[in-house]
Write a structure and sequence with these properties.
heterodimer; A: 107 residues; 7-stranded mixed beta sheet; 4-stranded antiparallel beta sheet; globular; B: 120 residues
């Protein structure tokens, strides 16, 4: 199975900060990657698919980039509602595998 | 808009079979555009994809669970189900059902999740 490694595992940031989360695949996965946001006690929510396509209804401050093995999720200006855990998911092949998550906390 | 809702026992004894159902509302499970998936999350940990089913009954399971997992579909009830046999404490998790679109793949929407605890 393809291993997905996210960094950092957690970060502290302030409202208005630019935040970048990285996801690295153990082998090339083209652009077959999605990003999900999860708030405590809630189901994950799709933010980005195909590495850089913004899901309908998701604010434009979220963006994704990358291809091959290295990917990033960027929040251009962190808002109070963005404090959550973020997961990447590779869909290049089965079994589908998630990164371990990055928790974004309030500084 | 499509909504998914998990249901089933919240407590299962070790060595028994975990059984959950996902009811789909606001859309037909028989739509050929979608697959229907189960994903789980142990308390305080990350997400693990379990498998999917297509309305025709074709399935794909995560090899790590394949020997214990069965996913089935009941199109007449607009439901799909998960069975996980020979459970242990390691199977304690929140179990989510989700609609899966392929090419490009995305999970949307998700059910709210249901906590299943394995304990005697």
């Amino acid at each position: 199975a393809i291993q997905m490694t996210q960094s950092p595992s957690s970060l502290s940031a302030s409202v208005g900060d630019r935040v970048t989360i990285t996801c690295r695949a153990s082998q090339g996965i083209r652009n077959d990657l999605g990003w999900y946001q999860q708030k405590p006690g809630k189901a994950p929510k799709l933010l980005i698919y195909a590495a850089s396509s913004l899901q309908s209804g998701v604010p434009s401050r979220f963006s994704g980039s990358g291809s091959g093995t290295d990917f990033t999720l960027t929040i251009s200006s962190l808002q109070p509602e963005d404090f959550a855990t973020y997961y990447c998911l590779q869909d290049y092949n089965y079994p589908l595998t998630f990164g371990q998550g990055t928790k974004v906390e309030i500084k | 808009q499509v909504q998914l809702q998990e249901s089933g026992p919240g407590l299962v004894k070790p060595s028994q079979t975990l059984s959950l159902t996902c009811t789909v509302s606001g859309g037909s499970i028989s739509s050929g555009d979608y697959y229907w998936s189960w994903i789980r999350q142990p308390p305080g940990k990350g997400l693990e994809w379990i498998g999917y089913i297509y309305y025709s009954g074709s399935t794909y399971y995560n090899p790590s669970l394949k020997s214990r997992v069965t996913i089935s579909v009941d199109t007449s009830k607009n439901q799909f189900s998960l069975k996980l046999s020979s459970v242990t404490a390691a199977d304690t998790a929140v179990y989510y059902c989700a609609r899966m679109v392929e090419a490009p793949l995305r999970f949307d929407p998700w059910g709210q999740g249901t906590l299943v605890t394995v304990s005697s």
